[in-house]
Every structure is written in C-alpha cells, then in structure tokens.
Amino acid sequence: MSSWNDLLKGKVAIVTGASRGLGRMDALALAEAGADVVITDILIETDEYSEIEAEKYGPMQQVMQSTNVVYANKTAQEIQKMGRRSTAVKMDVTNREQVKEVFAKVKEQYGKIDILINNAGTLDHVSQIEDQNDDFWERDLKVNLTGAYNCTKAVWPYMKEQGGGKIINMASVAGTLGGFGQASYSTTKGGLLSFTKSMALEGARHGINVNAIVPGIIATEAFKMGNAKMNERMIQRTAFKKPGEPEDIANAITFLVSDKAKYITGVGLQVSGGIELFTF
Ligand SMILES: NC(=O)c1ccc[n+]([C@@H]2O[C@H](COP(=O)([O-])OP(=O)(O)OC[C@H]3O[C@@H](n4cnc5c(N)ncnc54)[C@H](O)[C@@H]3O)[C@@H](O)[C@H]2O)c1
Question: Is 263 a catalytic residue?
Fold first, then answer.
C-alpha cells in the first residue's frame, strides 16, 4: 500500500498557467508531496512582454504583468528550497510546436513526465452574446480547450512509453451549470469535461488516469479582479457562503494524481463549496 507521506516522491510534474493563482498553488502542493515540478506560463517575471503578446493574450495578462502579479521564477525557487527540482519555462499552450519542444526538453532533463496539470485558462471575457468579442471567443477556445488538447497530445507518448501517468484538466462549474455572460468560457469548460472522459477511456489501457477538477468560486488574484457585486452574488450561492482557497483545489489535485486515486478516472470532481446544490 502506498504511503500518505511523500505521496508523490520521485514523480515529475508539469503545470500550465502556473505563474500565479491555482496553478502556482498546485505546483507548490505537488512539490510538498515530493514531486519535481516544471512551472510553465506565458508570463515569466524576467521576460519582456511585447505589444503583440499583450494584444493576443488579453487585458488581464497586461494588468498582471504591469502590477507584478507574476511568480513563475519565484515559485520555482520556493520549490527548489524544498529540495525538489524545478524550472520556470515560458510556454504558450496554444503554440503546438513550442509545447512539443518544452515537453521534449523536460523529458530530456528530468528523465520522465508523470503528471500533467492542464490549468492555463482565460477568465477575462464576460459579456452577453451580442457583446461577446469574436477574437476572444477564438482565444478562449484556443487556450482553454485546444491548449489542454495540445499538452495532452504532447505528453501522451511519454506516459504511454513509461506505462502510465496522471492528467488533470481544470474545468469549472460554468461548464456544468452554464454561466451568464460566459458563453465562450462555459463552452470551453463543458468541452473539457467531455475531453476528460474520452481521454480516460483511451488512457486506461496505458495506465493513464485522466480526471477533471470542477472548481466553484476560488479566491485567486484573477477572481478578485472581477466585478465585486457579481462575485458576492456567486459567493452567496455557495452552501458555505464563502469562496474556496487555492489550496482546496491543490489538495484535491494532489490526491487525484497520487496512487491513492489509482481506480479513479474520467471524473469531474466538484470542489465548489456546494455552489451547485439547490439552496433556498
Ligand atoms: N479562480 C476560480 O474561481 C476558478 C473557478 C473555476 C475554474 N478556474 C480555472 O482554474 C484555472 C486557473 O484559474 P486562476 O483563478 O488561477 O486564474 P489565473 O488567471 O490567475 O491563472 C491562469 C494562468 O494561465 C496563464 N495563461 C493564460 N493564457 C495562457 C496561454 N495561452 N498559455 C499558457 N498560460 C496561459 C495566465 O498567465 C495565468 O497565469 C483556469 O483554467 C480557470 O478557468 C478558476
């Protein structure tokens, strides 16, 4: 029986969109459980952020970069201090070639890839259908849905070759319940849940578990940047009447990617404080 101590000892993980928020906390939690972790994101502290990128990636990324809410290198250093290996790498999940190159380099430098957390996502496109921005509709599909596809496809041969692996897709209750003003976002998150099930079926014969996390309202920097009144209404819909903390998500992920969860695949685990429950 595997031990709860050093649950992920000797494992190698890649987390996408890990320069802040849930991805950063996931990376720290995986490392605390014993894994070496590669941090990837479009934003890295030391990087020049070009105007072209600013336009492509959207307003939230510009704000985060200009207000220094980018902790990719810092997170890697914190992990190294825990005695694990860690690197921060600039990687855009929509850039298929870049994803393949980064994964090949991780395999070369770390020897294997056991865990992939498809966390990168866009949260800054909120408007009703008449005002949905066509470019951001395309961007949201590319980042949230195709990005997870690109990374899964890139890691698959390595996991297959080594006889197993764990993949987590970051969905949302917007994908199960829908979201007012979230046409593109909810569509991508619903799609991720179907993608998770198909990959779980294909992965089982190779020892690859594929699951999704379905967060509700989690108090990340990105969430706090949203409309305060709207956020409060969402919080009041939860059974606990409060938002979750990033570590609530990270703990669930750490369990799901461990051998303690070896018979779990194809699920969308709600970590939502009961937001989907019938309240009155
Ligand atoms: N916070 C919540 O309440 C909540 C709820 C449900 C689901 N989620 C999901 O959890 C994930 C993380 O959310 P968060 O609150 O930490 O948001 P966040 O905006 O802080 O994190 C998203 C990260 O993805 C990165 N990113 C964006 N586009 C990218 C690209 N093309 N390639 C690589 N990285 C890219 C961003 O730079 C950022 O670091 C997202 O997928 C989000 O949809 C969050």
Answer: no
CA distance 267 to 146: 20
Distance 120 CA to ligand 1 centre (A): 5
Written as six digits, the tokens of 14 are 């890649």
Tell me the two tokens of residue 10: 């000797």
3-class DSSP state for residue 201? helix
Tell me, in angstroms, the distance from the centre of ligand 1 to residue 143's CA: 10
Residue whose token pair is 């569509």: 187
Q: Which atom of ligand 1 is nearest to the CA of 213?
A: 7
CA distance 136 to 96: 19
Length of the chain: 280
Residue 49 CB neighbours (<10 A): 17
Give the pocket of ligand 1 (CB within 6 Å): 16-17, 19-23, 41-43, 57, 61, 92-94, 119-123, 143, 147, 170, 172, 215, 217-218, 220-223
What is the CA(280)–ligand 1 centre distance, in A? Answer: 31
Per-residue model confidence as pLDDT tens digits over 189-206 = 999 999 999 999 999 999
Question: Can you tell me the distance from the alpha carbon of 223 to that of 28, in angstroms, rounded to the nearest whole number?
Answer: 20
Give dist(CA 110, CA 195) in Å, integer.
28
Neighbours of 73 (CB within 10 A): 17
Burial class (CB in 10 A: 0-12, 13-18, 19+), 41: buried
pLDDT (0 to 100) of residue 52: 74
Vertex 14: Cα angle to 11 and 15 (nearest 5): 125
Helix axes 147-162, 183-204, angle to 10 degrees: 10
pLDDT at 261: 98
Give the residue, by CA position, lying nearest to ligand 1 atom 41. Answer: 121
pTM of the model: 0.98
